[in-house]
Amino acid sequence: MSNPAPTTQSPDQSIAYLDSLLNKTLHLHTSDGRVFVGQMKCTDNELNIILSMTYEYRRSVAGGGVVGSTTLENLAGNAVGEGGAMKKRFVGLVVVPGRFVERIDVEE
């Protein structure tokens, strides 16, 4: 599932790596526990990532907050796991600020 980026690379290698991710499905894990799953369309100089056809997954609790981290196994079909049910909603085209992204998985 994961396609790690090389740690030391030239600008040309970085561009080639980003080009290889275009139109691929990414799983962006954010610092608030949400996961955005959508097709990568572009990024910008501020490290924001633009996804299309995106679904947002979050773990809900009785109080209406978000708790815990999500696992990819729980993303399919609002599965119930530790900490409550996974809530899924379609959000379409989104810009995810890079400063909130903790992990990126590439669906192959």
TrEMBL record:
It comes from the Eukaryota. Residues 16-106 form the Sm domain. Pfam families: LSM. Transmembrane segments: none annotated. One of its GO terms (cellular component) is NatC complex. This is LSM domain protein. It comes from Neohortaea acidophila.
